[in-house]
Amino acid sequence: MLETEVPEPSPRNRTTLLKLRARQCRYVTSDSGSEAIFCGGQTKEGSSWCPWHRQLVYTKPSSSGAKPGRGFIVPKLA
Ligand SMILES: [Zn+2]
User: Fold this and answer.
1) Highest taxon of the source (predicted)?
2) What distances in angstroms separate CA 46 from CA 22, 25, 49, 54, one per listed residue?
3) Is this structure's pTM higher than 0.85?
């Protein structure tokens, strides 16, 4: 288990593609509407995501036996 203290970005940072700036997290938090909503949290230089989403995207497979994740949660089909 990783015990990284990465704060979840505030929903208040969320923004749309048109308002998204460099150094803002590009993780799509919602695309249910007509336009995608991005996290908008502050990123570190050279990263497209805030630390919170970066760790989600780069989720490492836990030790042995686990398949490498793609970094996204795929809803299971019923
Ligand atoms: Zn983010």
Assistant:
1) Bacteria
2) 10, 11, 9, 12
3) no
